[in-house]
């Protein structure tokens, strides 16, 4: 199995990328990695490894670059070369913590869509109180969506939950403003009817945003505009909650002593709220796995994203999506 990785993308690149790559190579003996980036910047953190190939690139797609323009003009960038490797078949999947828009545009134009997929979707696993987590999509690949788009998101999310997360019969929920069947706008009402009447998914109906962390569904689907706001809300709330806990525990000598006693529990809580432990955000609906790691990823988060991409390849997630979408189109 071969993965192509953008060594220059993200706030902590290239150090965190290289460290995550080296961790993954130690744990996954069947994995070969092609690392793309500026040789002189990667070199201080590199260690020789028989399954690591470093490919020098002169350019870098920066976070402030216009996505479409970056893909077209920066042809010798680490991100562009990484995507080219997947397109040409010299890599099975790719991963970047860099510019999200550029990665999505590059994935669409270079890797290409699965036949029958109307619009790709960005998906990630978010935390739940019980630690199980749930898959949510679309998280911003498409700000607007038609009912048939969201139905395809549900089909692809169901496959991922089965193949990567190991859930035998995933519960699929539709994000809405109420749990009643009649709730929602024209879009959600139309999606509800299609999911209930025209798919064989384990559709559990509408789910509310306030219940997402209570593990009400294994897969939750919505349009990209709504999904991105929910993602940012969960991320912001988790960060704010940890900050408030830290402030409370640092308030006095007594609370500081309590913090020492609860150190392991607080560490576990922080890990439970950290969705990067589950990997990155995968772009569903493309001809090969394309994974977007969080921009602020540390080495552990990169390792988790590599594990995620490897699992997608190992379980032929893209091929299953292709055949399932083809069957649904034929019906």
UniProtKB/TrEMBL annotation:
<dbReference type="Pfam" id="PF02504">
    <property type="entry name" value="FA_synthesis"/>
</dbReference>
<dbReference type="GO" id="GO:0008654">
    <property type="term" value="P:phospholipid biosynthetic process"/>
</dbReference>
<comment type="pathway">
    <text>Lipid metabolism; phospholipid metabolism.</text>
</comment>
<dbReference type="InterPro" id="IPR012281">
    <property type="entry name" value="Phospholipid_synth_PlsX-like"/>
</dbReference>
<keyword id="KW-1208">Phospholipid metabolism</keyword>
<protein>
    <recommendedName>
        <fullName>Phosphate acyltransferase</fullName>
        <ecNumber>2.3.1.274</ecNumber>
    </recommendedName>
</protein>
<keyword id="KW-0012">Acyltransferase</keyword>
<dbReference type="GO" id="GO:0043811">
    <property type="term" value="F:phosphate:acyl-[acyl carrier protein] acyltransferase activity"/>
</dbReference>
<dbReference type="GO" id="GO:0005737">
    <property type="term" value="C:cytoplasm"/>
</dbReference>
<comment type="similarity">
    <text>Belongs to the PlsX family.</text>
</comment>
<keyword id="KW-0808">Transferase</keyword>
<comment type="function">
    <text>Catalyzes the reversible formation of acyl-phosphate (acyl-PO(4)) from acyl-[acyl-carrier-protein] (acyl-ACP). This enzyme utilizes acyl-ACP as fatty acyl donor, but not acyl-CoA.</text>
</comment>
<keyword id="KW-0443">Lipid metabolism</keyword>
<keyword id="KW-0594">Phospholipid biosynthesis</keyword>
<dbReference type="InterPro" id="IPR003664">
    <property type="entry name" value="FA_synthesis"/>
</dbReference>
<dbReference type="GO" id="GO:0006633">
    <property type="term" value="P:fatty acid biosynthetic process"/>
</dbReference>
<keyword id="KW-0963">Cytoplasm</keyword>
<comment type="subunit">
    <text>Homodimer. Probably interacts with PlsY.</text>
</comment>
<keyword id="KW-0444">Lipid biosynthesis</keyword>
